[in-house]
Fold each of these.
Amino acid sequence: MYRAHVLVCGGTGCTSSHSEDIIKALNEQLVEKDLTDEILVVRTGCFGLCSIGPIMIVYPEGSFYSNVTVDDVPEIVEEHLLKGRIVKRLLYDETVSPDTIKSLNQTAFYKKQKRVAMRNCGVINPESIEEYIAMDGYQALAKCLTELKPAEVIQIVKDSGLRGRGGGGFPTGLKWEFTARTEADQKYVVCNADEGDPGAFMDRSVLEGDPHCIVEAMTICGYAVGATEGFVYVRAEYPIAVARLELAIKQAKEQGLLGKNIFGSGFDFDLHIRLGAGAFVCGEETALMTSIEGNRGEPRPRPPYPAVKGLFGKPTTENNVETFANIPQIILHGAASFASVGTEKSKGTKVFALGGNIKNTGLVEIPMGTTLREIIEDIGGGIPNGRKFKAAQTGGPSGGCIPERLIDTPIDYDNLTAIGCMMGSGGLIVMDDSNCMVDIARFFLDFTVDESCGKCAPCRIGTKRLLEMLDKIVEGKAEPGCLEKLEELAYYVKENSLCGLGQTAPNPVLATMKFFREEYEAHVNDKKCPAGVCKSLLNYYIDPKRCIGCTLCAKVCPVGAITGAPKTPHVIDSSKCIKCGACVDACKKVKAVSKV
Amino acid sequence: MQNVTVKINKATVSVPAGSSILEAARVAGIEIPTLCFLKEINEIGACRICMVEVKGLRNLVTACVYPVSEGMEVFTNTERVRRSRKLTLELILSTHDKKCLSCIRSGNCELQHLCKEFGVDDEDYFKGENIQYDFDDSVAHMIRDNNKCILCRRCVAACEAQHVAVIGANARGFDTHISSAFDKDLADVSCVSCGQCIVNCPTAALVEKDDTAAAFAAINDPSKYVIVHTAPSIRVTLGESFGMHIGTNVQGKMVVALRRLGFDKVFDTDLSADLTIMEEANEFIERVQGGGVLPMITSCSPGWIKYCEHYYPEQLRHLSTCKSPQQMFGAICKTWYAKRMGLDPKDIVVVGIMPCTAKKFEAKRDNQNASGYPDVDIALTTRELARMIDTAGIHFPKLPDEEFDNPLAESTGAAVIFGTTGGVMEAALRTAADTLTGKDLPDVEFKEVRGTQGIKEATYNIAGMEVNVCVASGLANAHEIMEKVKNGTANYHFIEIMACPGGCINGGGQPIQHAVVRNFRDLKKLRAATLYEMDKNLPKRKSHQNESIKRIYEEFLGSPGSHKAHEVLHTSYVRRPKYK
């Protein structure tokens, strides 16, 4: 028994801010102070509050330290671990109260969350199968193999109401049933871990923080649908996730939880990892399978659906990481327990990657039906810098935006679809009034143009032409009538493209046009960018009445566009100006320079 | 299989379950346009021109690959569908060079045809970035021009179906283009020159190298004696270039057209097909009796030869050393015929009209110059001949019929069937059987080796000897057989291999039929049927009965397999790497 546990986040975010060095320094200090028998350092998965990492929690007190550095380690060991005095200056401000410290779960960020898919992330050491087992790991698998028939497993998943967390929201149990129904000599289970939406990283966090739950869930799925082999297709850019998953598979095999005759049930299941080579389209299920087969990752027409003819031409069930992460809990606690959370048609929780202009960026897992306002204002801590919320983008490059007037929309699959948005894999980017919606649409479209595989004409050429039209709009070169043409092409690409990538690529354009058409019109008709973002439509101007002739602006101007004698008003030559904004920053005190 | 009933526009049809909407629509008499679709080899649903509306489905679907189901209601001609197809075409045009006036495929271009059909009225509607690609003219037989490519990938599928697969998609998104690995030139990879990519290309992104100017120049040069000879299959395909029915026999008109073009002599490659049989049958008998390398494999198809050199360089000893009929013809023209006519071989220009793009490569091979000059100077495809006829203003369908010139024109039924898969084998068997039995056997038809299937096997008892033969066409089938040869499980004595599926009648130099024809009519069968009909009606059906052949041996070569015959009619092969 240890008298204290020090949990240090080993997720990608905290690792890149040197949590590994902290763990190393901690362990060295513990050796030095002869505390290795009393205190255990645990490298965990992601806590979610990535913006204040590296994160450390010391139990039994539960003190939540944030922004920890290697230099803080001696003090933590000396003060907290030896003398029992919490290092208050490192505590996350919200957990500090005059006489006691609050637990993590009482903070605004965590209070409204409910962790199902990420329940073990930040709690256990993901590299230890024993810790997973201690948290009831592999019990769900044991229950399936020893007590339930495959059809019963499928029924439980169907009853739970679980829908695909990768974006489409297709009922998971139904998907399993289709594969189970197809007769074949070989079937496969595939886990889609090719997370590619800009800003989304919940699948990575699950794999990093709780890899065994994916191994367990895929094995359960294999049993339910009649597959004996599974593949996890994971991005090569996720080295920590890959390493932990490899280790998890190795440990599971050693324990007889993968391989031949699992739990003496006669059921065999084996798992393989395939690394994605960086193509966004490989997150599309048929492209993913084509890639696993060793071919250029391009989608195939459906039907035939994977449940009939999938990987290597065999019936295949493909689910996303987060979907799988829910499975063991559903089996253990029952469909009703899972379905008790959420809305009528969207059950359970959803993990969102909160980003953009918001105070708390990171991963949040919320019950379906939570409103956007709760996510932004309560969990996210609101918009920083006194700015005003303008819209939230969900679903990344495939999604749309939710404008301020719909901020009280309860988030679930159907509500998002109804407003022309989509759940997507769970990226949630918050925008304030300093964001230009045309520019946002252009940003996402630029991404899809780059990531189009080039197979079908509407996506290959159509998205490119859409981007060129948007380029013209933000450059002030658009002609009247261009918005109608933009819309026509956007709808065409949507309904003619081969796969989900092309079919959803115009969504950011269509959604922003739906809610912010006046911004588009301002760009086209008035050649103005109301948010002051689109450089070609901006001019910088020095108010001669305010300018004191301090020369600061002229000094910082990188292109020598500002002239004027000292102590006389300065002037900007707009033909030279590159609109970098350095002069505005330089003139912060006097505020004589402004964008017009 | 069960039938399902579907409604297409206003028609109700019953079609086998599993049929595509495209197939069902044809049953209903409704044509749905396609670009990328090639039955069985390119069912990728990529071009999106065949989009149709299905009641109850949110998006349009691709008719080419979407299966019908009971009670399905399909609409192929709604405003939404027409608009969608037009936009697709306009998008494709925005990345196309649109130089229709100077394009070799103008009038026979599937893209051009569809633009007209769907009323594309503004070729610059989606004007934007249009990447400019360099030509690839590194090989002898063709030019790749990605500026005309619409990325339908039919060429990629055709190349893969040939088990060659040297072209594919490179880069992604808007930058996607077809080329070889690492964007290497075709000359630096193991392209076998078969030209199957060209006959499957809907536009002029892939075209044969046009040698018609060289042919016209030779004709116009008074110092040159220009001999043309036409391969067996040309007479049943050339008519298609002038709108005639597939498989029409136009031998007589073709001879007239060639004369009117100004060739000095119009000969028939059939003669050297017979000559090939004399040499090849002899070589086979020698190998069997002398313990030579078996199985022996035919060497008429230069695409196959190049394939073997790249992919099975260690098996070259199985190849017959006989030159192909094209090269034998040139060799005889510039040796025996030149001497007989008192001509200097340097003044003779031999032009072969071939169903084949690999013949252009073959004509430039080493060790193909019996007279000291190249056996063949210019190899033209059927398509190039058709262009010359058009240029010369000859109204082909109205031409009278005439006979080939003497003396290099006499041919037998055995030679005519060289144009289709199994033909060389049957011709060789006819001669071998007579030679070994010393009789004029009445039974000349070896029907087991006929037909358009990719691999045919048979065993014949010839003069008391069991002979196992195999006939393969299409290089994927060649690959299958060669794997057996390689691992020693091929229990054959004699194998015929043709590079193109179905043999020369479906060669890479033949008239281009749009995918809509290729998908729904069996070109191979229709063209081959005419060749077998001609064979049946010829008085002589065995190569060794050809009087001209007898004379050439008497006057010049001696006997098949003689030293002289080897000097003039045989060649050698080289090992080639897959990548340079």
Note: The interface with chain B takes residues 279, 281, 296, 298, 300-301, 303, 449-458, 460-465, 468, 488-489, 492, 494-498, 503 of chain A (CB under 8 Å).
Amino acid sequence: MDKKKRIEALNEKARAIETLASGEQNSVKALEEGGLLAMPVGCSTIYDTGWETNPRPSNPVGMCQPSAHDYLGCAGDCWWPAQNPDGMTNSPDLELICSSIIRDWRDIK
Amino acid sequence: MKSNYYRLIGIVTFCLLALVGRSEAKELIFNLGYGKVQVIDVGSDELLPDIAIKGWAREASFSADKKYFYVTASRHWIHKVDLKEMKVVHTIDMHSGGWDRFIFGMELAEDGKTAYVNLLSRKTSKGEAVVGTPNVAQIDLETGQILRSVDVPFGVANLAYVKSKKMLYAIGQDITMIDVSGKDMKTVDQHPMFDKNMNLLPLFTYGEENNGVVLIPYWIGEAPGLLSIDKNTGKITETAVKDPMMVYGAIYSPDMKKAYANMDELYVIDLATQKVTNVEVIPQGTTFSVMTSADGKKIYLQGGPTITIYDTQTLKVIKVLEMSTDGMLLRRITL
């Protein structure tokens, strides 16, 4: 079933998100669906196994142990854009504050 | 009699020069880090002075004459490191002309003055986001000027230059072959992967240290394999691995009979049988880049702020280097 048909806007804000204001048009090309570029530039375009798909039955059960090993790697290329700083746009100088997350994480304000 | 004397002197001089040359040869591994590149002396496994750089390093290439090391940082700078001085002597920025251009893949061109880079670009115009068409460009390493370019599919993340064919392989969802021999760069062929459900991670590659072969782990579903691109011939080979493994990077043994691959474990793969012969859980945790010493006797695994060094024969940890920076990639050169 189409995902959009299963999700219903319940409040005013959600309905506003679904509805364009009068005269407004979709304007952010990179985020448009169905276009050639359906991914915001700056985030990785690389196919990855993903952190949730570890097929191993035994230890180590996580994909990245400790996760701090991967923190700056993901921050730089925006692989975890929601959970850590975005080194390509909003936090380009993260390495000046912290070049080793395990040791220097307290320096991040 | 006199000629024998001179011959003897000549031989002795040659041997002494050879010995001096040999003693001065230095094998180094570079750890691409954050705000710095750290250097390991492979002979002693001690750290040499850091090379300060601006930004977070991602990719690197050595010039053919071994005088310079080009490092991409923050996906838009290219630093030129003098390998004698061990410091950055020049930097170019691909952010220019109002465009943000991000580098995902770099290969030096044969002329030593230019490089090929895969670029993703963006800018804002009247408050709107504008995204450029992904392209592979040849750039001047002195000025950063784009000399020529060709559009490529979205998703390219690395490049491999095949000298004999004067062809650039752009590695993404598929491998796009670009003919760079003429005035214009042209896409001429494609090696399909996406339609075969191949899932490729082409970030940790080391063609120059790997007998000229770019080796990339892939998965089809949960079945792993190693894809190789021979930079000498252009041949692409897919080698299925018959045992489970989850890996980021891979590199051959010097005799190319085995491959070492890594993530949370170090895997040894027999390439004749395509079976995993050894698996060692890495005590320090997840690692990203793998490198061997030139003689293949040691394996270096980089993860977070540690580099774990294994003895190849016993697969025992012989040293753990505590680094002052997390890292992304290891590259090796003998100077």
Note: Chain B is about 5% helix and 55% strand.
Amino acid sequence: MPQPHADNPPGILTGQDLQAGYAAHTVLDGVDLAIAQGDFAALIGPNGSGKSTLLRVLARLMPAKQGRVILHDQPINQLSAKALARKLAVMPQNPTPPPGVTVRELVGYGRAPHTHWLKPASKNENALIDALLSRCDIRHLADRLVHTLSGGERQRCWIAMALAQQPDVLLLDEPVSALDVGHQLEVLDLLTGINREQQTTLVIVLHDINLAARYCRSLLTVRAGRVVAAGPTDAVLTPGLLKELFNVNARILNPDGLSYPVCVFDRAEI
Amino acid sequence: MNRRPNSFNQDKPTGPSRIGLSWLLSRRVVVLVVLGALLVAGVFTAAGTGSSRLGFDEVLTALGNRGALGTPEASPADNIVWNVRLPRLILSILVGLNLAVAGVLLQGIMRNPLASPGIIGVTAGAALFATLGMLAVPAMAGLVFLQTLSVPVMAFIGAVLAAGLVYAMSWQPGLGTSPTRMILAGVAVTAMVGAVQSFLAVYFADRIAGVVLWLAGSLSARSWQHLPLIWPFSIGGLMLAAMIARPLNLMQMGEDSAQSLGVGVQQTRLIAILAAALLTASAVAVAGIVGFVGLVVPHILRYTLSHNHLWLIPGAALGGAALVCWSDVLARQLGEMPVGVLTAAIGGPYFVFLLYKTRLI
């Protein structure tokens, strides 16, 4: 279980002057960020702004050309692949459901960083996997093959697998973009519950500003490979920021009876 | 907002795609037992058939009579089984095992059912260098031993060079290797190597007369001397395969997912390629090109046995062994036809049938 770091609240995951890209093409151009312990942060920005690249660099799926990522107090480059996987889990944008694998087996894969190739799964492991299947509401699907499931069910399986790693930090790349509104809320409710119950720090790439405003405690906004604004959602989310990010005129409403703001957009004139 | 209560869903009757664990388990066990039975039947058939036919009990008696070899008590059956048929059938088993396991490993790392030692250029590289070995050490009377040594060594060098070349060609700085690039590089390497091979076969036709038969994949006239050229590689290759079975399972979800679960993706690839090169090179060294085994056996077993490499690797070892063992029995019946011709003749159409049945094309 993740340990709360009350004495050391800021920055369970920090990035310092991150630069990354493909060949000569620079995608991240000096990103500094700090994600607080227990945060539920949304990473938002226009298409091609470097959100996914930033997430990949934070997860060491892609090397940074310059700068470093620090998890707890350790640069992630100093961790072995398994040690990193015990602390930080990633849900890629479109994970491939492996053929012929059941939901239970898939969630069990999440235990890989905690096991050795000669050591079979123990009784405790099975209890943990059962608990995760129940928590993510996929216990009734346990013996189904993953590739036969619907999009929403699959996303819950991937989340359960990532949670089986028992990470302190979970990064999710657009986990709800391909889902209908009902399943979007279902997945985000699940993530909110996990964030509250286990203090798992969540960083989630979202395209829907209204979902980010409703669910996420803080926003990290990027444009053209640089951080535009970062901080608590209430403080950061302004019409000015949305104009800068997406070139839209936004009105931010606070309807009666809702605890979160609602944004309405118009395309800005040039 | 509202979570559906779990108890509601738990006891619900499940849909048609539900597969019970016990059923899966029993099916896997059944497939493995069938493969094992096929192999044992193949062994006794191979030991019993040939110019003189031996029954099951005669084979058993002969196998128990090893001590009598070289003494006047040895019956003709003892000599035939021990000196002619046993080494050949053990070789056929090891060749099949090696090629099928190499196929599993390559398909596993490339997530592509078309990957196999043949496609990736490893077989061609091994064959070319083995041919060079034959050219460099002409089969003159006194040099026969040197040639039996140079061929496998050269085959291994060729397999590793081809695999290394394919790996290097498909490698992009910062991104690693992609399965697609690797297969394209394999096709390119196979083509280039094939050109050199044809050149050698035409220009040195007189000096490498046996090479055509050998390239077609043959197990005729093999003896105990050939065994040390393959069994250490079979064991080494299987051990490496066992080491990466679990990482290979995780890699079926894609590189990012595997890596975020702590799999060393590049190390796993490297180990798989090295193991596949060892297994393929030693098979090529003793039997030439026995095609389609590394492609068809893993592919069939993925659908009938399991996608899980912990089952697939032992299953492919049994299946490949049984296939080449039976193919060699049949090849001998057909007037010493090269076994590679037969495996391709059996494997090719079955592969098409399987693709059609599983609606992959």
Note: The radius of gyration of chain B is 22 Å.
